[in-house]
Amino acid sequence: MRTGALILGVLACAGGVSVPAAGAPIVDLGELPALGPRISASGEVFGALHADGVAPRLVRWGSPLSEAEQLATPGWLAPTRLAIGADGVLVLAAWDTREAWRERPYLYRADAGLVELPHEGKFAGEVSLPAIAMGADGLVYGFGRLESEDQPVVYGSADELPLPVASPMTGGRVESGFVDAGGGLVMSVSVDGVGPARTMRLDGEQWTDLGDPSASGEDGWLVARACEPGGVMVGGGASSLGGAMEPALVSPEGAIESLGLLDGWIGAEALAVSGSGWVVGEATVFDEAMFDLRGQAFAWHESVGLVELSGEDGWTLLSATGISDDGWVVGIGVLDGVERAYAMRIPSAPGALVLGLGAMALCRRRRSV
């Protein structure tokens, strides 16, 4: 297992003095991840890695420091979306490589293996039907990709047919979806498949637009990605239709707060949030060495602000796609020119050990709406 040192420290607002803090190792989880790994609140990690350059296989780590365990999955399965549901059940969408361009909905249970959810009725035939989230009650949510719009779907169990519910927006395309702390289905939907997204919440039969970071709540856009147990949602948005994406928080009361951008960032989006208040995600930066755009993993906490995550020994951390309650971050990085899944630990108690990376300007103010 290859490790690198995580550079930790804080740039003090008074005088700009860098105060070093304890280091943490970067753990190499494996090469060629098919999608960003996910981690549960308790630290169980799931991902999909390409085995010897062939079709990706689902992989589980009991903790970031455990050995990888390949889950029994067929060779034709190519995962495209992955979420951790109740009791460690995996909710995933995947291409069936024996068919052409159709995502299918699956669950993976430790006691039953891979289970394909039914997709009869109006979604039979040439329709992609990915599963994207599971609620605490075990219900699985997804959508059917029809020609004119994406139709949300609820699955009761593997023995029941999908139950379509009212579409949040005519002509909408679903960008992301999850179940929030109150049990409501949250979907971010682009109006025409290419335009800026609106984030909608389904409570019973009623869809509500959560608004956006603009002063009016109507002039910008918002994509929500995840929710922590207290009800705070995270994602990305902009205060105008043509504005750069900034990491955003949505409070349980519905207030939206943009976290701003660090110098050199073209845009950024929060992808996960922990119960201890850490937010992680991916920024877009221009890499002068590559002369191209690339991702940059970042973290945020109320007591610290925005900081970039970086590593020594050749690691470049492109994204942070999940975080546990005790501070384990997972994501995708590059080492020796090869994309690899990684895990690293940041402080779970920012008041005791303040996080900062390199010489980033942590005094940068956030913009609240």
Structure description:
The chain is mostly beta strands and 369 residues long. It has a domain of 94 residues. Helix content is 0%, strand content 50%. The chain has no helices and 32 strands. Strands 1-4-31-30-29 form a five-stranded antiparallel sheet, with no helix packed on it. The chain is globular, with a radius of gyration of 20 Å. The protein starts with a strand and ends with a strand. The N terminus and C terminus are likely disordered.
Provide a compact summary of the structure.
The protein has 369 residues and is mainly β. The protein has a domain at 72-165. The protein has no helices and 32 strands.
Key phrases:
mainly beta; disordered C terminus; disordered N terminus; globular; 32 strands; five-stranded antiparallel beta sheet; 369 residues
